[in-house]
Amino acid sequence: MKNQLRGDLMGKYAAEKDQLIHAYEENISQLKVDIDVLNKEVIAVKECYIAVCREKDALEATLRKEFEQEQQKKKDQTKEQAIQEVEEEWQRRLDQAVEETTKAIVELKDCTSQTDPVSISDETSRQAMAKVAEEHKLQLQEVLKEKEKVARETLRELER
To answer: Which segments does the entry list as coiled coil (predicted)?
Structure first.
């Protein structure tokens, strides 16, 4: 009877042992499945993080580009304004020189017409003076163009 009891207990023990091994193996299998699911979630989160970082980098690049364009636009506007001011100043000087030359010619014509009757030589003198005045005007315009060129070159150097 002892042997029979021992045999029964050993059978129960072996059955319980097999049952526990089976339960633990199922538990381990379930934990492995859970780990796989969690690993997949971690990979998905990593991919989302990478996508967010790329989007952030793209937005930063866009903002940086827009800022640089805005700065360049302001610089160009400032440059154009400076060039315009220089052009206006030189145009004013040119107009003043032309006006002074014209006044001198008119005064000379008045003096000539009051003292002497108009003659061919006086007309020739007036034409020569008008030609000189026109040449003076052209020279002033060339000086203006040269000054504008110098102003632009100076602004380009300042930009560097």
So the answer is: 14-100, 130-157
